[in-house]
Structures are given as C-alpha cells and as structure tokens.
Amino acid sequence: MMENIEELSPLRITPTVRALSSALRGKREDVHGSSRVNGDRVFPEPEKLWFKESSAKNLRNRDFLSPTTMLNTLYADGQVPPAVMSRVLSLRGSGVLPVAGGEVMGEGLRVRVDRAATFRAVLGGGAAEYLKPLSQRQGCVVLNCPALHPKPNTPSPDTMSLGQLRTVLLADHMGALLRRQGYAVSFCPTLPEDSDIISFLRALGIDWPTAPANWTNEEREEKIQDSLEKSQYREREMERGRRTSGGGGRKAEEGENEGALRINLKRVFQEEGLPGYDPSLGTCTVNRDGVSQLAQLDLSTADCTAAMVTALHVTSCQDEFRQQQIAMLWRASGAKHTQRHLVCGPVKTPGSHLTAAQYLQLRRGQMKEASEMKYGDQVEGQTWDDIIKVMTSATVRFELLSTVHTSPVTLDVKREGGVSTKGPRGGVFVMYNCARLHTLFDSYERGVEKGLYPEIPEDSQLDFSALKEEGEWLLLFNYLIPFSELLEQLGQALDSEGGGARVNIKTEQICKFLVSLSKDFSSYYNRVHVLGEPLSHLFNQMFCRLYLLRALRELYHSALDTLNLPPIRQL
Predict the structure, then answer these.
(1) Taking Cα atoms as reference points, which of 70, 150, 153 lies closest to residue 104?
(2) Which ranges carry the DALR anticodon binding domain (predicted)?
(3) What's the Rg (C-alpha) of the chain?
(4) Rounded to 5, what percent of the chain is helix, strand, coil?
C-alpha cells in the first residue's frame, strides 16, 4: 500500500535531493539543517551533497551528482561503503524520482534516474500536479503602484516613463503569481474607467481596477486627514525647530504655513520597530496627493477579510524615498498592515528618450512590419490585429521583466531596428514556439480525421521507454518536473519575516524559464519528426511524444498565464 501511495505522489527534485543526501549520510541526517564535526571530519549541509544536472552533455551519463569533494568529507579517501551505495540505489519516498543505477567515477558518485518509469509517472497521470505550486497560501496582498496615482491628475501614457511602465508590468506579473499561490490580490489605485491610461494598459493585456469618471474618494480622504491630525506622531509647534524637512514635495515645502500638518516619520519606524527604512526620512509635510494615495490604499484593503494583509509597493528606485514616506504616513494614520517595497531599477534608452506610449507604438509597428515580412498579405483583419497585440505585449513584457528587478534595463529603441520572429529574442521567440505546439496538434487532429492516425490511447497502453532522444528527457527533467517548485519559491518571498522594508523576489525567473524552455524545445522540434509515417509499428513512439508535448503545451500555458499572456494558437 505504501508503495502505491508513493507512486501516486508527484515526483519532485527537492525531495529526491533530500532522500539522496539522507542515503549518503545515513544516521547523521537525524539532526536537520546543521553541519557537524565527527572527530576532525566536517559533514556538509544536505542540500550541498548533491547537484541536479541540467546540461545536455552531463545528462547523457547522469542525472544527479555527489562530487568527489563532498565524498571526501564523508568517507575516508572518498570510498563509498557498499551499504551506503545500496541505500542510494534502493531510494524510495514520497515524491522521490526512481533510481535506475549509480556508480563512482572520477567526478564523484553519479546517479541515473529510471527515465521510462519517470516519463510514465509524470505523463501518465496528467501534468496538472506539475503546473501549480506545492501548497496554497492564505492572506490578502494589495499591489500598490505609485506610478499610477494622480499627482494631482491621472497619469497619462504620454507622460509615463519607461521606468514607471516597468513597475506597472511587474505589479501585474506579481498579481498573477500571487493569485496562483492562493492569495487574494487587489490592485491600487483605482483609475477612471474612460481614461487614456486604462486604454493603454488594456492594449498591454493589463486588467486594472476602474471606477466611473465622476467617482470620488473624499470620505476616505477626510478620514485619513483626521487620523493624521490626531496621530501620536504629529509634530507639534514646539518641535518645529528640530524637524528635518521630509518629502512632501518641493512645492509643499515652499508653501508651508503655520497650519501645515507634519508627521515625524523617523519616530514611526523607530518606535514601531520597522527595520529597513531610510534614516533620513525625518519629518514629512502632509499634502493632498499623499492623502489621496493613503485613501486609495485604505480603499484597496477595505474588503480584505484575511487575517494577514500585506501591501506591496512596487516602485522605481527614483520614487523609493517618496514611497517610504507614504508607507510611514499610512502607518502613522493607524494602518497596521504589513508593508513591503519591491523596488525596480531604471530603464535606459541610449541615444533617445521615449515615453511609455511612444515605446509601445514603436514595438507595435515593428511587430506588424516583421509579421508582414514573414507572412505577407495574409497579415490583415481582426485575427492578425489580435495576434500582433499579444506579440507586442509579449515583446514589451519580456524586455522589461527578464532582468533582476533591482538592476537597470537597457533597451534598443532605434526605429530602424526590428522585432525578429526568429532567434531566441525573448517574447516573440517564446510565443512562436508555443504556437508551434498548437500547430503540431492541429496537424495530428487533421491526420486523425483523414484516417492516417488513430486516437491517442490511454497511457497504460504505451511503452514510455520509447522516449530515448536526449531532448525528451531534457524537457521533462529541466522544465516540466521543476516548474511547480519554481512557483513555490517565488511565493515564499512574502512569507519571510524580517529583512527590512525591501523585498527581493526573483521576478525574472518565469521569463528566463520560458526562453530557456523555448530554446530546448525548438532544438528538439527541429531535430525530431514527431508525426511520422502512419505505420502501426511507429505509433507507440509517436504517441509517447505526443503525451510529452501535450504536457509541454500545458506548461507553456501555465507559465504564460503568470505573465497574463494568452497563448498564440496559430502563426
């Protein structure tokens, strides 16, 4: 019965590495997460004992490796005792990949997975368990985008910088990722429904909350103003000579009068024990724009019923100081929600200066031109307009989201340049390869209708040992199996306690994952003829490959969904 339960558990990389480490260390594994000294021998951490291989070259002869340097720390002269080798070769456990063999070579102890059994376990049971996080979290997250707040007017795509656009796209991506984790997600601020900025965001596939153009938030603004006036952190007249001017904005500072409301922000983060805030925040003069933003935040959290509410401020590095002021003003007004700051580096365009609207227009024009060059006169009508819209959105998202969020992004925005539909160039390349999978299955279905191929049989009727091409294992082992753990890691960043105001999330990983997947899939697809001759003795291998590629198609959909990009089904 236990074996059946274990076989039904989705196979994972991390449990496999842990089980391999436990087998190698034996009883020493009992004390979790600590290095120990036995005599003069230091035993390494479990996660450092084994490495998952990923390169095509190394995967030809091993899937996991415990390097010789690690073996030498565990055993005299690096000699693995027979009993230990027996434990490694008979590895079992929930989520653990089945082991086919192992041997000690010059580079260390290498282990090879039972690939046919793994293909059957992953593909036969359906890929759904491999396309979602390992666990579901609870709580409410408000994604606040300062670039979209009125100052005092609603922002326009003609005035929005590329750095600000990067923060909006990052907030949109984070919203999709966090919803996948189980969080209730809302966005701030609410924008006028007929505004140019909403039309611009929709052109990028961003669904932002709206309200009627005549809607106001005055009641909440008055409530926030009243809370700040009564705040224990309000600076009184006698303290004015000691205050350090904050960031209420240059105009606010120049127009200060005797009745100005000032809040001592430094006291807020010091007395409430909030690490990571700029010690030079000092005292801030409250102005109308700041109160408006606080009222919008108050509105966005009003419907949160979860016990844990987190406001994630997604801001540019230029606006980080101002956003820290806003966060502490909100705290001073009585808001007790956890607040974290996701800070984006600048976007550079050497030799030119483009607004967000000009950048989108440039990329859309280049995408249309590239499509016309490749597909000719057929590029017309609503279908192609929709394709170009999605491809443009993909281009923009991959350009601005494929870099570590704290690092600068440098864009080539020369008008004579183009957006290539060939080569591993981000969004277009990814969408093109996703479309190839849809085209493949369309071709198969047409073959079925013509009587060339039978319907895909149940997995129990297939022999998955037919999947011997190295690209097939690469796609399963490097992408399909690890994807759920990648999602899980991205969701853990908000769970971490402490660490200060800033939060660093590896937001670039989904884009990099998709580009890498597309490179390996493209290489495989160009090398292997999936739909072969309609001969019965070839059908088993063809169906096994279709099982793999069907799971891969779902993987594309799942990953693209975290970027709010619908798949292109034809090109």
Answers:
(1) 70
(2) 430-571
(3) 28
(4) 50, 10, 35
Residues 156 and 84 both lie in one domain: no
Residues 477, 119: Cα–Cα separation, whole Å: 9
Buried b (16+ CB within 10 A) or exposed e, 390-401: bbbbbbbbbbbb
Q: At what angle do helices 483-492 and 536-561 cross, to 10 degrees?
A: 10
Verify that 165 and 81 share a domain, yes or no: no
In the chain, count H helices and then E strands: 20, 16
Domain match, 52 and 168 both: no
Let me know whether 219 and 145 are in one domain. yes
Q: Which two tokens stand for residue 499?
A: 């660490």
Q: For residue 359, tell me if it sits in a domain.
A: no
| β-strand partners of 67 | 108
Write out pLDDT tens, residues 399-434.
Answer: 999 999 999 999 988 755 555 544 446 899 999 999
In a domain? residue 332: yes
Q: Residue 64's domain spans which residues? A: 13-21+48-113
Domain count within the chain: 2
The structure's pTM equals 0.89
The pairing of strands 184-188 and 191-192 is unpaired
Q: Distance between CA atoms of 49 and 43, rounded to whole angstroms? A: 9
